[in-house]
Every structure is written in structure tokens, then in C-alpha cells.
Amino acid sequence: MTDSLSKESAPGRADGGRDPGALPFIAAAALAAGAVALLLGLVLGGSVTARVIPGLPDAGALTRWGLPVSRHVMDVAAVLTVGLLLLASVGLPSAKGRLSTEAEGLVRAASWTALLWGVAAAATLVFQLSEIFGYPVTELVGDQITSYAGQVDQGVALMLVILLVTAVALFGRTATGAPAALALLATALVALLPPPLTGHAAAAGNHELATTGLALHVLTISVWAGGLCAVVWYALRGGAELSTAAHRYSRVALWAYIGVAVSGAASALARLSDVGQLFTTPYGLLMVAKTIGFAVLGYLGWRHRTVTLPALAEGRRHAFLRLAGGEVVLMSAVIGLAVALARTAPPPPREGTVDPVREVLGFSMPPPVSAQTLLTLWRPDLFFILLVAVLGGLYAAALLRLRRRGDRWPLGRTVSWAIGLLTVVAVNLTGVASYAPIMFSVHMVQHMTLNMVTPIFLVLGAPVTLALRALRPAERRGDRGPREWLVLALHSRFFAVLSHPLVATALFVGSTFALYFTPLFGYLMNNHLGHLYMSVHFLLVGALFFWLIIGVDPAPRSIPHLLRILLLFVTMAFHAFFGMALMSLSGPIAPEWYALVERPWGPTVLEDQNAGGGIAWSFGEVPNLIVLAALFVQWIRDDERTERRRERHAARGGAGGDSDLDAYNAYLAELDRRAQGGQRRE
């Protein structure tokens, strides 16, 4: 299979070349399948059935049907945009970072689908407003639309989508480089997230699991389905690099399929109270139908990997096109079912006492905090489970590749990486995660661990160095594979600015003050996405700072050891001042939030906040000692390497063994020669 990636394009056309007549047929069949699945799903779910409720207005049939149709068009356009950009940026070979003519054509096509995506999002916004107010679309006024788009979460989410995809549509008209196409792909992926983060998932009982699961589901299914559509479109237009594109997509599709399976299971677990609801409720039946379609698609993907891709590598395209065309049609039907599922209300939770804390947090108030509950009251979070699994799995895979190649890797780095991942587990999947939203002191333990402990061990694990050693260079000269993209990112101007010592230190220190001494903390605490943002931000800025101080991986600039020590002591002083400032506050931070999750036990909010300030003031002692020890060890080793280098130079016959001294002696000799020449002329 690897050899097929280096084949020239000619075999890819051996048994068919362009087949433009099949493109409209497959497109029409896919649209019809999606429309039929959407219609059946809407009828089964009952979301288009007129419900007359006395005293409440009815938005009318246009809104009942227009909203799911516009949402379906929006989803299809989003999938196509992501797929076209994915194929253009990483699926097709590039020459020294410049897109090929075919890849540029894919980006131009993506700009048109992004435009359709934006128009459908605007229509969805209007229909949503009509449904919420119960007014027909024709009776809505401009002030209502602007107010909804700027103040209501669902409206703001759609406005973000419109702005992001408009940028993709505009810049996609002129993009010619692979980095630009990759940036457009990243923008399109971000544009997928706002609607699911404000839909049914955000209101589910276990909304942490539901929100993360749905966001992952949308991302992975868009990559999977969009990539397939793009490859089929490219094949029917006689793409010269079809074998390469199909093999590269196959690798991405496998991981996307796994992501769809995991996220789908998480979403079902968050919305269904028992397995019986799968077969006794419209929501469950639609989920079963979607799962069956998903399983069939998985089988077709397996057939691709075992039958059609080897044939495609030999120049036989028809088997691939037949199977892929049918796969696109089935996938369109699954997307139609997904839209209908999103329009169907999940089954109500089991009857019981209304728990206001559960409504806010997604879980009930935990018992009084103790060492036992912190260790035993596990709180699974899909995001951090996947984060630890992916980071640990990639590191292990890289180690395995080095071992097979006969290369050695320091055991200490592996142990350090494992400790770093264990600290992520300790503060995000145990009782710490359960108490952090309701106790500021526990939240501060979580913050300080992610910001000052986890990054130390992760950067000492040297993941970038390991990746550069494990990843293979691109097989084609001038093309970019994962290794080339990593090197490009490390040498980019953006990364050079971000890794400047002053910038990294300002982010490390300033973000802490900006979070806790502004309304930002209260805003972020009010939703699960805000919790994730804080945790990821703390982890990233901490990793950036400690990478500059004690990192083993290559950096854009070399920082003297004395300056590293100075930066470390400066941040220590600021963290101590931050803790003292917290303890001196006369009122609680984010009082509205802590009123929503008021505890019937333990210290008051202000007392707990003072304890959190004390933790912030004293927490950095042990991590800073670890950093200082690592820094001094690195300093000694650097000096030893420099001395050995000088000794080797001297042993090879260098004048004195010191290049700087040699240059200075040569300079003095040149001055002496000139002076003697001047004396002779006199």
C-alpha cells in the first residue's frame, strides 16, 4: 500500500479517466436519499406535526418544514466545505507549499459551498426565531432578528457560523498555498461547533458528556463524510492523483469513524435513561436507524481498504467509484436522519425531585469534601479521556516505531510524559473535577496543577523531538506530510512571536490576573465549554512557558540559562502576589455563579476563596524546585557538551581549540601584517 503512494498519476486514469456524466447522477441520488430520510425522520419524530396549544401562537407550516430543510442544506454544505478543503490541503501532493492546479480548484469549489453554508445558516436563524416566537416568517421584523442574533445563545451561534464561513468563502477565492488551505480548513472546522454547543446537548441532564460528545460527533462525521464526497468528486473529474488521495483519505477516515462511534455512544448515554427507550420512543428509533446506517458505512469502508484501494493502486478505478458512489448516497441518508434526530425531542428523564444544581452542573451536589471523596468520586469527562488516550497513544506509537528501527529513547523522558498525563487524570477525572465548580479552593488546585505541574513533566517528555524522530519524511520531494507540517509550524512567524520570552511570560502571568479579576471567570464558569477553555488554556500557556525554561525540544531561539532563571523568579513573584491579592479581597469572585451552586456544607464562599488564595500563594514552591533542579542539570550538561566540542576541535589540530579565540588571533595577525607592510613601504 505504501508503494502505491509513489505511483505516478497515469495509472490512476487507466480504466476510465473523467466520467462527468456520473457526477450529476450520484449527486441527484444522494440528494434524493437525504431528502427521503429527512422526511421520514421528521414524520416519525413528530417535529413537523402541527400542535395547537391554546394561548400559544403557531409559526405555521413554512417554519415547521423550512427549519429542518434549511438546517439540512446547512449541514450538507458544511460537510462538502470541510471535505473539499481537507482534500486540497492534505489529501493531494503539493510542491514546496504551493497547491497544485487541481487542489486550487477544490479550494475554489469550497468557497462556493461555504457561501451556500452561510446562506443556509442565515435562513436557519430566521426560521429558528420564527419557531421560538411562534410568528410566521413574514411577520418578523428587523429588530427581532438583530436582537436574537446578538443576545440569544442559539442566534449568536449562527451568527458566528455566518461570519466564519463568509471568511472561508472570501479567502477561498484567492488561496494558492497549502498553509492557507489548511487555515481555511481549521476555520471551517471551528464553524461547525457553535450550533451543537447551544442545542439539545447543552440542556441535557449530563450536559458535559452530551456537549463534548456532540461536538466530537459533528467534527468527525464532517471529516469522514466530507472527505468521501470530495474524493468521489475528484475521481469523477479524472483526478490525476486519485490513488494518493484515496489512500490518504482512508487513513483519516478510519480515525474519524472511531471518533463517530465513540461520540455517538456518549451522546446516547447522555440522553437516554435506559436501553428500552431505544425501541419505545421516536428519538430512540431514529437513533437505531442512524446506527444501522453507520454500521453499513463501516462495512463499506472495510471493503475499500481490503478490495478497492489495492485495485485503485493498480489503475483500476471502476470498483472504487461504484462502491464510493453508493457510500455517498447512504451517507447522505444518514445525514438526513441526523438532522431529523436533532429536531426530535429526547425522551424525558425519569420522574423525580427537581435538582437545581444538577440543572446547572449536569450532576448532583456531591457530599462534603474529604480526601476520600476527592480520590474516589470519579467524574468521567469525555474530552479529557480522549485527550489522555490520544496523547498517550501517539507517544507510545512513536516509541514503538523507534524501537522497531533500533533507535533508543531515554526512559526518563517516557516516565516524565506518563507522569504529566497522570496529573491530567488526577485533576480532571477524579473527585477534584466534581468539587472544582462548587469550591474555589479545589478549582485553584486544578488550575495550579494544569498550569504549573502538568506542563513541567510534559515538556521534559520531549514530544516534538520524539515526533521528529519517529515521523517519516514525505515520499515525494517538495510534498508535505505530518513531519513537514510540524517543522513548518515550528518555524512559522506566528510561533516565533508566541515563543518570545516576554510574550510567553506575559501570557503565563497575565492570563491568570485577567481571568480572576475581571467578569470573565463568572462567564466561563456558566457553561461546560468555558470550563474546558480554562483548563486547556492553563495547560497550553504553562507548556509554552516551561518549554522555554526547561524544554528539551528545539525552540526558535536559544535563551541563556541566567535569563531563564530570572524569568522563573519573576513569575514566582507574580504568583505570590496573585495569591495575596485573592486573600485580601473583601467579596467573593463570581458571586452569581456560586449562588447557583450553593453548598449546604463546608466553609462560606469567601472563606473558601481565601483558602484558594493561600493555595495559589504557596502551590508553586515544589514545582519551582523541580524546574530549578532541571534547569541546573541542563546548564551543567550544556557546559560539558561545549567543553567536549572544544576538546574535539583542539584534538583535530585547531589553534587553541576555540573558534572565537582562533578568529581573534587571526584578526591580530592580519593587523600585524598590515602594520609591517606599512613600515616596509616607509
UniProtKB/TrEMBL annotation:
InterPro entries from the UniProt entry: Caa3_assmbl_CtaG-rel, CopC/D, Cu-R_CopD_dom
One Pfam family here: CopD
GO CC, any one term: plasma membrane
TM ranges: 21-53, 73-93, 114-135, 155-171, 178-194, 214-236, 252-270, 282-302, 323-342, 382-402, 414-440, 452-471, 492-517, 529-550, 562-583, 615-636
Subcellular location: Cell membrane
Main localization (coarse): membrane
Domain Copper resistance protein D: 245-341
Name of the protein this chain belongs to: Putative copper resistance protein D
Native source species: Allonocardiopsis opalescens
